[in-house]
């Protein structure tokens, strides 16, 4: 009997320095029924030729091209092309261990889970952090899995260290033209899953590189995350209200982290304050729901500062403020 097929979606655009290592790691996968769905998102360097070579060499590698539309639409394209019963995602500048998809699939089948998650290592230049080869795992129900997703200690919103039943993507698509697309859809996938199995074993290697989208200086596209958060808050409130305290805590952490990033990245006081105003506008709409769940005193002080229209970081001695008219107009 033929083993269940897994479709691995690999969107890429101008990553010729890393793509071969990524695809080679997929060519070495031990799961015997795999298809690799490569989506060329308008590359202008040598990435396309590298992908073409793998499609020519291996019958289970498939290459599709589209004009540059961004990672979200490339992943949607991949989902439309995928024929497997299970879906995995690999970022084109990362790589995976040979047993990754076999281990994830076996764990999911053994526990009748809809999502399987493995650990990941990080690569900094030539240095890779340690692998965990423990074989232990835990199985979570829907509420537990969502709680852990927002708590963010054993796994986070990233798609790349997980294996999903394709049926979870029914009526779920990546928001075209947006970044933070993992954040936008991950909660919906976990809401659709009855059970999730989490492996301690390390299967994925994430490459930290300075010129990735989320390592760029803070820019307007990063505000896409607040559009995603509004959708998440609405859906979680309706579907899994018991998890909302953890949603509010993660949303608060996300906001404070964004403000520190703004301070670090933007030397222009005017530009930094404009982003602070936009972030604050989103945050204070939810302030009354958030505040009761923030028990850490330092964090409570920070969210009160945001509500009052300023944010000060002692570490960098920087101050973000919104002007008085903006504060009055937006309910501050």
TrEMBL record:
InterPro entries tied to this protein: Glyco_trans_2-like, Nucleotide-diphossugar_trans
Record GO terms (molecular function): glycosyltransferase activity
Keyword flag Ubl conjugation: no
Keywords: Glycosyltransferase, Transferase
Domain Glycosyltransferase 2-like span(s) in chain numbering: 7-136
Similarity section: Belongs to the glycosyltransferase 2 family.
Descriptive protein name: Glycosyltransferase
Organism: Alkalicoccus luteus
């Amino acid at each position: 009997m033929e083993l269940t097929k897994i479709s691995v979606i690999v969107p890429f655009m101008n990553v010729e320095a890393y793509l071969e290592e990524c695809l080679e790691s997929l060519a070495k996968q031990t799961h015997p029924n795999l298809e690799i769905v490569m989506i060329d998102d308008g590359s202008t360097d040598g990435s396309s030729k590298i992908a073409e070579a793998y499609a020519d060499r291996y019958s289970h590698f498939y290459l599709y091209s589209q004009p540059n539309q961004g990672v979200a639409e490339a992943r949607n394209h991949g989902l439309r092309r995928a024929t497997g019963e299970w879906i995995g995602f690999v970022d084109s500048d990362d790589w995976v261990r040979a047993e990754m998809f076999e281990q994830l699939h076996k764990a999911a089948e053994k526990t009748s889970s809809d999502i399987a998650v493995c650990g990941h290592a990080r690569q900094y230049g030539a240095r890779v952090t340690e692998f965990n080869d423990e074989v232990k795992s835990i199985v979570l129900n829907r509420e537990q899995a969502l709680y852990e997703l927002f708590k963010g200690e054993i796994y986070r919103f990233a798609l790349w260290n997980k294996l999903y039943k394709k049926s979870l993507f029914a009526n779920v698509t990546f928001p075209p033209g947006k970044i933070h697309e993992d954040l936008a859809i991950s909660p919906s996938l976990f809401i659709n899953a009855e059970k999730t199995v989490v492996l301690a074993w390390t299967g994925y290697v994430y490459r930290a590189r300075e010129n990735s989208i989320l390592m760029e200086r803070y820019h307007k596209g990063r505000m896409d995350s607040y559009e995603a958060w509004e959708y998440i808050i609405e859906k979680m409130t309706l579907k899994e209200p018991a998890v909302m305290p953890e949603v509010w805590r993660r949303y608060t952490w996300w906001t404070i982290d964004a403000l520190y990033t703004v301070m670090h990245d933007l030397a222009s006081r005017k530009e930094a304050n404009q982003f602070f105003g936009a972030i604050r506008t989103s945050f204070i709409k939810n302030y009354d729901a958030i505040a009761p769940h923030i028990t850490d005193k330092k964090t409570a002080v920070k969210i009160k500062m945001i509500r009052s229209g300023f944010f000060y970081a002692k570490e960098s001695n920087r101050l973000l403020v919104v002007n008085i008219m903006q504060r009055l107009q937006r309910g501050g």
